[in-house]
Amino acid sequence: MSALKKIIRRAKRRRRQHHQQEQGIAMDHQEGISTSKGDDVHKVVEEEEISVVNHGIKKKEKGIKREVSYKLSSFWELPEYMKDNEFILGYYRANWPLKEALFSICRWHNETLNVWTHLFGFLLFLGLTMANLVKVPQVADLFGLFTSSVLTSTERNASHDSNYQLLGTIDLKQISQQSIHRHLAADGTPAARWPFYVFLAGSMFCLLSSTICHLFSCHSHHLNLTLLRIDYVGIAVMIITSFFPNIYYVFQCEPHWQFAYLGGITVMGIFTIATLLTPSHSAGKFRGLRAMLFTSMGLFGLVPSVHAGLVNWSNPKRDAILYYEGAMALSYLMGTAFYVARVPERFRPGWFDLAGHSHQIFHVLVVLGALAHYGAALVFLEYRDQVGC
């Protein structure tokens, strides 16, 4: 019996030991899991801390990059799509945000005068348009620089009895009363204004599109290409619309010539615009092609001009019209020559980065040429108001 009891007690002891061992293993396993979880949590915390630190570094680096990107760059630092004039060596804006590009209108860089010359031209033509619409002769005449195109019928009658002269060359009394009564429209209706305003609208579109292009083309490659094409289209539109007042008013009594000449320049303009809208033709290497297209459109005007001169050589306003149109042609041709030749910066690279380079000269001459044509359009319009068809 005693031996049996000993065997039973020994078995119970072994079972207790085995049970304790199992519990110990389970506890160790749980501790191991909690330890590994703790390590994982610690690891996650460390990763989060590292991530936060790295994020701060990234922000700092980003801030430095933004500060650097808003600084003016040299020609060699530019992306390829912005490298157009190798003789302008510095003061470039490259990949600027739109907001910074807008505010750069008040900063000095190599586009500042390009922006302001045509912005001033746009505002000037906007003012002239409003002055003609609301009939403010003194402003529309640029305070005596041109003959007024907005005279009322009473003022026109008064002008016939005055010694008013156009730049000292044209006396309106030279137009005889007999000629006026012979040619004046039966209903006394003044000449149509729409060709005159078509020209003003085309000029404003050109000048405004140029301003926007030079201000925002530094933003991105895509926007640069888009704005360049709009800028070239603006030049073509200005050339096309410049023909409308002189052809319409000179050939007002010959509508078949009106249609032929206006239709011809419109078709040529549409072809030019289609060519300029081709992305590949926006590249700098096609500068000569663009200049040739613009010049060809301008030279087309010689045909109706010669025709009009032969038919109306005895017109008393001939000298004034030739003066203005000659000044316009000279301004445009000189501007194109500077644009293509890249003079004067070609001879002194880097000297004319901020002021005096060829594109700025081109802009000034474009505005002067447009003003000269405005003067001619006033003469055409006033003559048709007085004489009719």
Automatic annotation (TrEMBL):
Top-rank lineage group of the source organism: Eukaryota
GO biological process, one term: response to hormone
Binding site for Zn(2+): H214, H359, H363
Entry's localization field: Membrane
Region (Disordered): 9-39
Keywords: Membrane, Metal-binding, Transmembrane, Transmembrane helix, Zinc
One cellular component term from this protein's GO annotations in UniProt: membrane
Basic residues biased stretches: 9-18
A GO MF term: signaling receptor activity
Membrane topology category: Multi-pass membrane protein
Spans traversing the lipid bilayer: 196-218, 230-251, 257-277, 289-309, 321-341, 361-381
Chief place where the protein resides: membrane
Protein name: Heptahelical transmembrane protein 1-like
Biological source species: Linum tenue
Species classification: Eukaryota, Viridiplantae, Streptophyta, Embryophyta, Tracheophyta
